[in-house]
Design goal:
This protein has 220 residues and is of the alpha/beta class. It has twelve helices and four strands; from the N terminus they run αααααααααβαββαβα. The model has no long low-confidence stretch (mean pLDDT 92).
Length: 220
């Protein structure tokens, strides 16, 4: 859910203290619950609770990718929420409906269907709803013809972009960011010290961009 200040150490503290036993328990925390924990003062406790509350409105795609459904990561959750903008609509869909989604195979479709229809899954989403987590799409995707539908791989070190930041930027423009080169790859973005992925892309005749070309395309 991209909650600022909620790192692994803090999560471990919350679990050990018995303050959080379920995802939804995060949204019930008050600053006074956190102050007794190591590393927290009133100011930092208030800041974390505010950050947690802000994450309620991140939208359905972020929730789907964050609750641990097998095979449903960030890219897949965007595909799902684009078609099914609320949990209610998703819950009404069949396995056959899921198979019609981009890059969905039988296993992914069945896994998603079972996850949202299981007792544990239905309870999960109901508990998140009850604490005010938005189960509705708030996608602000602005499709860019230069990137829409393109499969892009990133390799090497980039001077002006963090990998996570660039991935989100490209996905928001309609691209799909993959981890490996294949014949389906449209563009390889190659920073310095690009290795085997660059060679493979060149062997396959895949278009290769350096950081300057990337910046120009995004700015344009």
């Amino acid at each position: 859910m991209d909650i600022d200040g909620l790192g692994e150490k803090v999560v471990d503290q919350l679990l050990d203290a018995g303050l959080v036993k379920h995802f939804s328990d995060l949204y019930k925390l008050a600053p006074e619950d956190l102050v007794p924990l190591e590393g927290f003062a009133q100011k930092s406790a208030v800041a974390l609770v505010e950050a947690i509350n802000e994450s309620k409105m991140r939208g359905f795609a972020r929730v789907l990718s964050g609750v641990g459904i097998r095979l449903v990561g960030r890219a897949t959750s965007r595909v799902i929420s684009k078609k099914y903008s609320t949990f209610e609509l998703l819950h009404q869909a069949s396995i056959e409906d899921f198979l019609a989604l981009e890059d969905f195979g039988q296993i992914t479709a069945e896994t998603l269907f079972k996850a949202i229809h299981s007792q544990q899954g239905e309870e999960l989403f109901e508990r998140l709803r009850s604490v005010g987590v938005l189960l509705q799409s708030v996608e602000t995707v602005s499709v860019d013809p230069a990137f829409d539908g393109k499969v892009i791989v990133i390799t090497g070190s980039l001077e002006h972009w963090e990998r996570k930041q660039l991935t989100e930027e490209l996905e928001n423009r309609g691209a799909k960011v993959a981890g490996s080169i294949s014949k389906n790859t449209d563009i390889l973005i190659a920073g310095s010290k690009a290795g085997s992925k660059l060679k493979k892309a060149q062997d396959l005749g895949i278009e290769v961009w350096d950081e300057e070309q990337l910046t120009t395309s995004i700015s344009g």
